[in-house]
Amino acid sequence: MFLIIHSLITYNRTTHFMTEFVLLGFHGQREMQSCFFSFILVLYLLTLLGNGAIVCAVKWDRRLHTPMYILLGNFAFLEIWYISSTVPNMLVNILSETKTISFSGCLLQFYFFFSLGTTECFFLSLMAYDRYLAICCPLHYPSIMTGKFCVILVCVCWVGGFLCYPIPIVLISQLLFCGPNIIDCFVCDPGPLFALACISAPSTELICYTFNSMIIFGSFLSIMGFYTLVIRAVLRIPSAAGRTKAFPTCGNSAGMQKIITLVYSAMIPLLNPLIYSLRNKDMKDALKRVLQLTVIQN
User: PANTHER family per the record (predicted)?
Assistant: First the structure.
């Protein structure tokens, strides 16, 4: 898939007046940019540490080889790649004088960022479905959510996420961009790209925004639907202790545009391990065992 998209972008590159874009990011005094660099770097390292710890715990502790933790482990692995699709380039961009990105690099970043984001939406829906089965259908859960079925669902999320955006990428790659080449953002978002096109492309914009809307609202509605059923089932549990035990298994609870982009590309991947995994008792116990084993081996 990567080679196909790269070849299509390279083939269409001769039709463009521009060969690179300028990702403006947070421009300002050098001291301010250094603060942004340090802040984002710390977020990135903490995200890698938190999600990496979850992946290791799920992989090495056989007691976590259950559907729920397999989903959490894959979700943590996904978060590592999701944040790595933009943040390293963001850090280089802050220190760079030119702040440029090639046309091919811009579209590839767009593809991986949105494909991984789509995969994340699918995983959140799948995790909501898993909790719905575990809490609302506990007697049927072991026969429905088998290890084989869980692996199939995980593969569908990964493959489905990366199959959603080749068509929008190819359509955008055939647009003519004649300047200016400045994108006032951290990443190659479709909105700023359309604004830089020589002529408007309403059909291409409609396809891209339709894709995004279907994915976002479809995932949102499925998540809300499953967790509404879960909350209703939990509230019917007669004892307060039972309700308390059930809820943690769910685990979910131009300048402005830049801040929003920074939040969902750098900060949310850091918070997701805290929301979905690190508050879970079994996960915390597994992390302690992995840490103790690492200390003993060293």
Answer: G-PROTEIN COUPLED RECEPTOR, OLFACTORY RECEPTOR 11H6
